[in-house]
Structure prediction request, 726 residues.
Amino acid sequence: MPYLNINDVIEPVTETSEFQQLARVLWLDTISDQVVLFNIVKTPNKPWVMRLSELISFLDNGDIKTATIVPSPFMLRIEEDISEKEKCSRDKNWLRIRDLIETEVPGEIFQPGAMGRLITDQAIKCEIPKKTIYRLLYRYWMNGQVRNALLPDRFNSGGPGKPKQYRVGKKPGRKAHFQGVEVDTQSKVLTEADKNCIKVGFSLFATGKVGTIADAYIKMLRRFYTSKTLPGDCMEPPLLPANELPTARQFAYWGHKAYDDITVLRGRGGERNWKKDHRPLTGTVRDGLRGPCHLFEIDATVADIYLVSRYNRDWVIGRPVVYVVIDTFSGMITGVYVGLEGPSWNGARQALFNAFTSKKDFCADNGVDITEDDWPCHHLPHEIFADRGEMLGQAAEGLASGLRINLGIAPPYRPDWKAIVESSFKVLNVTTQIHWIPGAVRKRNKERGERDYRLDATLNLAEFTKIIVQGILHYNKHNRQPDRLTKEMIADQVEPTPIGIWSWALRNDRIDENSQADELIYLHLLPRDRGSIQKGGIKFKGMFYICDLAVEQNWFARARHRGVSSILCWYDPNSTEHIWIQNNQGNFLRSDLRKSEVRYIGYRFDEVIDMLAIIKQESPDSKYTKLVSKVSLDAEISDVVKAAKQDKLLKTEVSTKSEKLGNIRSNRASERLQERKESFVPDDLRSSVPPRPDAIISAGVAEDYAGARSAEVFDLLSRLRPGAKK
Prediction:
């Protein structure tokens, strides 16, 4: 039983095979053990016959094999794409050979001596030459014995890839007209030298060295198609005659043939822009990811809004920086940082710390009440893809060496390498309606006379952070991306949202978490600075903190005795309530803000630092008023001293040194007694006890704790103490 079919193509394998080219099976006759073959060549001959059993033996021996060839391009069209003119031509040709194909006796045309006779009769019947019948039959057999093989083949018309050969005296190109009248012009037939000149000139445009094709054309003419001038001739070299110049159309045509559109696009826009905006996208960033926590992306953007200070809404503090950390697999926003830290490692690590820790306390600090299920992200990834600016440096290397996180650095000016996080910024802007909030940056430039949008700034940093957090919660719950679903997710009817995919992964143990101790997270992500142990607590950034270890070991009592000592502190820049210190074993211990420092709760460290700096500041008016007062004080002091000196000079008696210094004690007592006599006491508080008559000054020394005046003082104090009656 043969395993060949009509229309199968036979391909030679060995050099000893009787087949030297492709051949198509036109007819099989198992009874007579014959097979009709037709060579598939450019100029075919008549079909030929061989024994079917011999052909099958060649197949069995491996001398030949069946092959598959692609149909000609003119046949690769569906019926709707074929024009009516082409259909008419096909059907006309089919009628010319149909009676030879569809005969009462199948395969009649392949019988010995039948082909010539049948074709002659058909040519007479159709009133066309026999060679036309042969041409149509050969075309029909060569292209698979289908009716569409008779369609007009215009795909190769015109000699593609071959230069045109113009007859002598024939004018190439379209006829020129001027004011409706044909003008006799002679276009140049380009030589290979001309085409090389065009290639050189067009390269100026292709590489972006000139602005337009017209500019490149002018420079080519000036370089290659001007007559030579004599040395010293300052005149511009004259252009060759018009019939010796390539036209602008020829320049553009042959220039584009030398430099295709992709080459021009890459050359004029630059390789960087090509890779960013025009390169082919043959995959997604999720290809090859195992699941959530395999890869995080992080990036920062300057928000399109101006903010004000929390202490005074008249103080504009500029635009905040928003850092976002996203899980590439699920699209989940796992961490965020909103602050004034420019794109740097300081801002990036705060966002990463937020991504690796629970969000419940973070949201509570920003006025948003959530449960752990609302934002269930507190995991470390295996890889982080970031921008060069914020992640390069020794500090970021701690992620790799200390937390076992591989870093991927995007090339400069290539935001497309972080497509997920870049697109999330756009979604967040729309979700939070940031461009409609007072103080938002307008897309168009401010026109003359228009109000400066910075003057409308209303939100402070805390309020803007609350809006961003609410926007992230909405994004994680409702941003649908069905293309992220896998076959298993579709079977489990998972909602195509970030939190839906993340929660499904949690339930099915698909999160490949990079588990690390909290101490390592604090050590490598929290910023640190020096504090001091003082008698009032651990002083850090102008605030005091208390911890159990310090109380147990009497750190503060020792500070009163031995003085201030230094200590290394770790802190979360987003909250002043806690700092962390290390004990002797290296474990992190939390220190809480002292109760007397409650005024700092709810603020960030940078806000407290700014507040303390503002308090210490003195206004220019205050400085001037203080200066005026000091000058006036100095003048008054000088006047008093001057008057005293003059009064001293009026004294005529001259005292010796011993007279001046020998009676200081008695002089002091006399002065004190005189002061008591001249002091003012309100009438309702004056003592009713009469002065003692025996109150005298003995030996020139006044009684300090006895006498009439002392009695008055004791009576006054007894009535002034709490609970006493006046």
About this structure: The CA atoms of residues 120 and 130 lie 6 Å apart. Confidence is low (pLDDT under 50) at residues 280-285, 695-705. Residues 187-229+238-275 form one domain.
